[in-house]
Amino acid sequence: MDIITTVSDQQKYCKSIISGDKGISLIPTMGNLHKGHESLFIRSTESDNRRIASIFVNPLQFNDAKDYTEYPRSIENDIKILEKHKIDCLFMPEVKDIILDRENKTECLPDYMSKLCGQYRVGHFNGVFEIVKRLFEVICPSLAYFGRKDYQQILLIRYIIKKYFDNNINLVECETIRDDFGLAMSSRNIHLSVNQRKQSSIIYKSLCSIKDQIKKDINYNFDKLRKELVSKVKNENIRVEYLELLTSENLSKPSRKKDENLTLLIAFYVSNIRLIDNIQI
Ligand code: AMP
Question: How would you classify the pairing of strands 273-280 and 238-247?
């Protein structure tokens, strides 16, 4: 596997691939790789593109400096995992090389990006926007792999691809991978004890139960379902930050029409660890 650490070397590498008539598949990550990331690497074997993974802990998307410094990093093990999956190239740029000074210009993101995580982590999605757009500019992928675990992020990637890349990048949306307790895999789970992970299994179970109730009865009372979930998980020392049922397309309020695609999205704290999850209805 080639390991590239500068933007200019990465651009040269990608140019030579594209001029040689191959396409590029990009799998961006922040490292500390787990089975969720691995599912993206496995999915990316579907094409004969060159497969490039990036590892970059993006300071712009952390609204808490401590959260950024404490974000788990495990590069040696990550390299082993990437090699196991026969990834062709790892791009791991330095902050000052990849982040451009755009004279403090902030992209005005669509309204739905200021809801949910956009509301509770102010500036987070502008940080994700900056880095993903830059990675796409440097690497010029024809395929890009992202997980639906970060569903609001998926909406942002769709927006970037449509607005800045003329829909010329195919976004491959990958299903959420869960641990044996049903907890969505996340690099942050490393901070949880086995017991806390067991306790957190109540989240996925409760989301599934809400899904069943909504499917059974179109006259569901979501406020009541939310209240029940919040009090049930409180017994497991889990605090819910938000729980919303919104349209999958643009996170607007459901109209209760039968054919509408809805997503149930949650952010919650186990001790001081913030996690997110969602399921499609
Ligand atoms: P991260 O390193 O957390 O920025 O994640 C990198 C990519 O892996 C993103 O597209 C995530 O949505 C995806 N990802 C993270 N966890 C999971 C998971 N449990 N299942 C599927 N994809 C995931």
Answer: unpaired
Between the CA of 151 and the centroid of ligand 1 the distance, in Å, is 10
- Tokens 């089975």, residue? 35
Task: Please tell me the predicted confidence (pLDDT) of residue 83.
Answer: 98
Taking a C-beta distance cutoff of 8 angstroms, is the pair 62, 127 a contact?
A: yes
The residues pairing with 143 across neighbouring beta strands, listed in sequence order, are: 25, 170
Find tokens 């990465």 and name the residue.
10
The number of the ligand 1 atom at minimal distance from the alpha carbon of 33 is 2
The single-letter code of the amino acid at 150 is D
Q: Which residues line ligand 1 (CB under 6 A)?
A: 29-30, 36-37, 39-40, 146-147, 149-150, 174, 176-177, 184-187
Which residues are annotated as catalytic? 37
Question: Average model confidence (pLDDT) for the chain?
Answer: 95
| Residue 145 in this model has a pLDDT that exceeds 70 | yes
The pLDDT assigned to 103 comes to 67
